[in-house]
Amino acid sequence: MASSGEELSSSSPDWADSGTDLSCPELAGASASLLDSGEDFEVLEDDDDDLSELPPLEDVGRARTPAKEDARPSEQAPGEAAEDPQEWLDVLGSGLLKKKTLVPGRGAESRPRKGQDVTVRLKAMLEDGSVVEESPGLTFTLGDCDVLQALDLCVQLLEMGETALIVSDAKYCYGSQGRSPDVPPNAALTLEVELLEARDAPDLELLDGKEKIGLANRKRERGNFYYQQADYVLAINSYDIALKVIGSSSKVDFSPEEEAELLDVKVKCLNNLAASQLKLDHYEAALKSCNLVLEHQPGNIKALFRKGKVLAQQGEYREAIPILKAALKLEPSNKTIHAELSKLVKKHADQKSVETEMYRKMLGNPSAGGAPAKCKDKLSWSIPWKWLFGATAIALGGVALSVVIAARN
After folding, report:
1. Which stretches are tagged as biased composition: Low complexity (predicted)?
2. By residue range, what is the domain housing residue 121?
3. 99 with 217, same domain?
4. pTM of the model
5. Where are the strands (E) in 84-185, listed by range?
6. CATH no. for residue 288?
7. Is 179 part of any domain?
8. DSSP letters along 60-87, please?
9. What angle do CA 377, 380, 382 make, to 5 degrees?
10. How many structural domains does the chain have?
11. 3-state secondary structure of 7
12. Is the peptide bond before 85 cis (omega within 30 degrees of 0)?
């Protein structure tokens, strides 16, 4: 997990998980082992900030997905002729993700398409053969990265009814984080998968309020899982999908309570999206996400804090300082905002000193020592002489004019 400087309080999570199913309501029987377990976790911010006093980032249950690394083909197909390397398909061409057919399916034309909801029978094992995941009917949306990448990528290659063995590098499973307590860090997993069903995903316009909220929350939770794994690109992908669900048009009327809950989920997604974008130094995108939050909730402390951080990262200290002051006013005891604000005030003062010195050099006054004082003295003497010269010239001009007029008369 990316350790983050924005260490958020775990004592007051934004909401409690109501469930961990991976699918639509009718598929709730599919145990959500490859998605979120329901455990609360925190999405952390920057490595150099202490956010222990900042209200928790919009968090949610930690994803549980089977996954891991390479197991040798010969060890992965008990009772099969798996030793023949010709039988293994190198899915990515790198040797890090392999697939082998154990039971043939109904033909290539029966393969599922991205965007469909698929249901699979799953069994996940470590290299020593111990089973860490087993589900008779796991359902997820293909191509949305709702489950481990190894599973998401390989199921697209399965034929209906096909049973296959998949071995994957940790990179496409739980990575260096592992999954406590049963999947150690960097552990190889072998997945035995059978494709049971594939059907079109439900029409977003026809989802009722409860279904839409549940779907958006599952996508958001998946984004939180990827954030914890420090995979900010996939986190952004999941948050974007959640926002797309929330923003989709609907032919169903929602109650005021459902509308309010959808707005709450949207704000959480945007806040977490900004955190992910900030991790990738996508400052303009992060600023836009923060501004969208503040349009709905002008007093959202996390959005104010991150907006201040984004502006500070861009060197806009003058704009960042009042924003952090606004956040501090809402949360006066927040030590993290205090620390960040103090740091920015110092940086701003240093920046102004540098600018002052630069202007001084541009005006031909490179130092603040004796030379400027001399110039000042010289200037203070030169001004009266100039005025005296001007007054004399005017007086002489007046005399000359008088003489001319007198001569003409």
Report:
1. 1-12
2. 89-200
3. no
4. 0.68
5. 89-90, 97-103, 116-126, 131-141, 163-168
6. 1.25.40.10
7. yes
8. -EEE-----B---HHHHSTTS-TT-GGG
9. 105
10. 2
11. coil
12. no
